[in-house]
Amino acid sequence: MSLPVSDADLSLCDREPIHLLGGIQPRGVLVAFEQGRDTIAVVSANAATLLGAGSEALLGQPLSRVLSPDALARVEAGAALGPVTVEAGGQPCSALLHESDGLRVLELEPLSREDADAEEGALVAVHRLVSPLARANGAAALLQEAADAMRALIGFDRVMVYRFHSDWHGEVVAESVRDGVERFMGLHFPASDIPAQARALYTRNLVRLIADVDAKVVGLVPATRPDTGRPLDLSGAALRSVSEIHLEYLRNMGVGASFSVSLLKDGQLWGLMACHHLTPRSVSAAKRQASEVLARLLSLQLSAEERGKEAAAQARRASLLNMLVMPGLGERNPARLLEGHAPLLMELTGARGVALVLGASSGLGNTPLLLGATPPEADVRALVAWLSEQDLQDDLWFTDRLGGTHPAMAARTDVAAGLLAVRLDPAVPHFALWFRPEVARTVAWAGNPHKSMHPEPGHSRLHPRVSFQVWREDVRGASLPWTAQDLEAARALKGALVGVVLRHAEELAGLSRELARSNAELDAFGGTVAHDLKEPLRGILQYSSFLQEDFGPSLGEVGRGQLESLAWLAKRTYELLDNLFEYSRLGQLELSWEETDHQALVDDVLRTLGSRLQEGRVDVRLPRRLPTVACDAVRIRQVWANLITNAAKYQAGEHRWVEVGFLAPGEARPEAAAHVAAPYIFYVKDPGIGIAPQFHEAIFELFRRLHPAQAYGGGTGAGLAISRRLVTLHGGA
């Protein structure tokens, strides 16, 4: 869906420096002090209300005027965990500490008796709220349970779960409201309501409270720092004041207080829990922290739900591809095979029609193979000719509004409002095209999104819209959007067609290029799998550690041994995946060549390995200074480290040594290196256990070890495979 707001509106909103507004909300006091010296450099103008001294009187004073050293130490110790309760100005306060612009920023919020009692109650509430989340069946039920739980925790009039779409406009997908309060469930909000820099802050600071939209902003003293020439950066401050545009937006909605908690998925902003109260209302630091815990649990469960669906969809696509490929291994007419599997080809991406332009060797000549609901042959040919002229990133192109991009297809929305195209060979116009028809639908917006901003007469400042009445927009000419899973399926089919169809291609060189790209995709896939599987292994390691600490004495010797074995296996698997990820990345590596002093490179490696070599009583010999040779210094340093580590590890004698050297051009070479044409030959020599001749090639296979996993200090068996591949990338042997 296109953004229903002008570029000018978005540009002005996105440029507003909301992290440099130079003020805070009056519900607390801010003090910034210099690191090391603990001298107050910036203080909020309302300091006297809590600290008994004005801001001017506090500037340049030691922080001990505000907080005792013991209290500061407790705040520092708990900074990463959340608010700490301290005494300041003779009353209990919630304290937060972070760093900004080279200063340490201390935020103090006075605690009422109710707030002070709320800490234990908030944590108990989170425990009570976890059970409904765990019982929820499906994402919709999960989000509704979370909205109800949040409203029960903070007592606001309205709690919405607000999900961002791909164009950053938002939709209310769950809502819990007090009786008599206006509902926004199912309504959409334009992207300009939460501009880019606000989304960046929501990603950085997960919790945001505006206790009173009409409260007067408290300035900072000094307003502009003498050393930087600008206000203190308040990006990380919980008390940070709010853009007047946003405050006016909330007033227009009839909101007196706002509280939001970010929902992240894989580190990216997925949505918000947006909470509104019709009158001013605060949320204690303890409840804010409990809300953050609740949101993190929700994010984890949402990710698990989505990953489960993605895994099921991937399994289904893999099954479809297998059904397409396996019967075709001996098929001499790929076109006949593909025509017989038309339903599978369409189900693969959820399309209604498929067009395949495969070339003469497919048995079709240059005639497109049209399956399902597609445009006429002439239109498909014209579309392929147009696509052939485009710069297709990763040989892929897709849109859910084909008529808007390629006007010649504007009249074909009945079959081709959406197009997903994959180019099978960059040298010839071979394509697979999937088509989707128009899906006419009505989107309900909270107010007219095309009038989201209006300028103040005589000024450039924008004012937010004043109406949030339901405004319905008919969306025409668009198909259902293509998902990341659809794109992945198209790429996978491309690889399958390489095996089934392009095996018969006219030009062998074209096939070789396609296979090379398929290998690159396989490398990327291996890296992705290794990366994704490491997350659950981290959890296994962490919970194994928890079990050992909490229940070790009660498990008995056998139980402890089994738990230690579990932890060792998880750690080893983690290391294997780490090495698999590293190995897969090498297929996409671009070397950075430069003249490199190998003596300095090896000296650096030896300094890094110094303690290990000393512990193993290994002497290192360098018969002469190593030369300067062009290479990628970072990658060859990795090779030196792997070879020296292996040489030091696999030795059984008492007198252990490793020799690092080279053979220069013109010098006699051993028989094993006689065939190498390179001007320099580097070597690492040791009196170790050796490798039997029959294993000279096998030892370079990934994860290949000739000894038990825990022998000779353990290891994964990836070091030599990685080293050989790096040397090969340099043109060596």
From TrEMBL:
Gene Ontology BP, a term: detection of visible light
Enzyme's top EC category:
transferase
Organism this protein belongs to: Corallococcus llansteffanensis
Q: Which reaction does it catalyse?
A: ATP + protein L-histidine = ADP + protein N-phospho-L-histidine
Q: What protein family does this chain belong to?
A: In the N-terminal section; belongs to the phytochrome family.
Q: Which SMART domains match?
A: GAF (SM00065), HATPase_c (SM00387), HisKA (SM00388)
Which PANTHER family does the record match to this protein?
Answer: BACTERIOPHYTOCHROME, TWO-COMPONENT HISTIDINE KINASE
User: Does this UniProt record's set of keywords contain Transferase?
Assistant: yes
All copies of the Histidine kinase domain together span: 528-733
Q: Which SUPFAM superfamilies match?
A: ATPase domain of HSP90 chaperone/DNA topoisomerase II/histidine kinase, GAF domain-like, Homodimeric domain of signal transducing histidine kinase, PYP-like sensor domain (PAS domain)
Gene Ontology terms, MF aspect: phosphorelay response regulator activity; phosphorelay sensor kinase activity; photoreceptor activity; protein kinase activator activity
What EC number(s) is this enzyme filed under?
2.7.13.3
Among InterPro entries, the record links this protein to: BphY/WalK/GraS-like, GAF, GAF-like_dom_sf, HATPase_C_sf, HATPase_dom, His_kinase_dom, HisK_dim/P_dom, HisK_dim/P_sf
The protein depicted here goes by the name histidine kinase
* Cited Pfam families: GAF (PF01590), HATPase_c (PF02518), HisKA (PF00512), PAS_2 (PF08446), PHY (PF00360)
- Domain of life of the native organism: Bacteria
Q: Which UniProt keywords apply?
A: Chromophore, Kinase, Photoreceptor protein, Receptor, Sensory transduction, Transferase
Q: Which residues form the Phytochrome chromophore attachment site domain?
A: 138-301
